[in-house]
Write a structure and sequence with these properties.
Layout: H1 2-16, E1 24-31, E2 35-42, E3 47-55, E4 63-73, E5 79-87, E6 90-94
Antiparallel strand pairs: 1-2, 2-3, 3-4, 4-5, 5-6
Keywords: Cuticle
Pfam family, one: Chitin_bind_4
Protein name: Larval cuticle protein 65Ag1-like
Length: 104
């Protein structure tokens, strides 16, 4: 499960990368039996970091709680950054460029 999350995140960043030579400036990861973390930064301004922990291990309510962020430079030259939490309440992103739902 943890490997899948990391792979999907890296795959999404790779698809969003512009064509041309991009080098990895920093790449770190630490994967344990009940937690993980990773971070990377590339020469085109893309960066991401994420950490997660297994909650309620061994129970029927076992789940992974993740928090992280990613940023990239858009085609318009603006740096976009998203921070997020993903847990039993779903994926909860936030960023200055993302719309916010009205209060109910």
């Amino acid at each position: 499960m943890k490997f899948l999350i990391v792979f999907v995140a890296l795959f999404a960043v790779a698809l969003a990368a512009p064509t041309g030579e991009v080098t990895i400036l920093r790449s770190e990861s630490d994967v344990g039996p009940e937690n993980f973390s990773y971070a990377f930064e590339t020469s085109d301004g893309t960066a991401a970091q994420e950490s997660g922990v297994l909650k309620n291990a061994g129970s029927e309510q076992e789940a992974i709680a993740v928090q992280g962020s990613y940023k990239f430079i858009g085609d318009d030259g603006v740096t976009y950054e998203v921070t997020y939490i993903a847990d039993e309440n779903g994926f909860q992103p936030s960023g200055a460029h993302l719309p916010v739902a009205p209060e109910a």
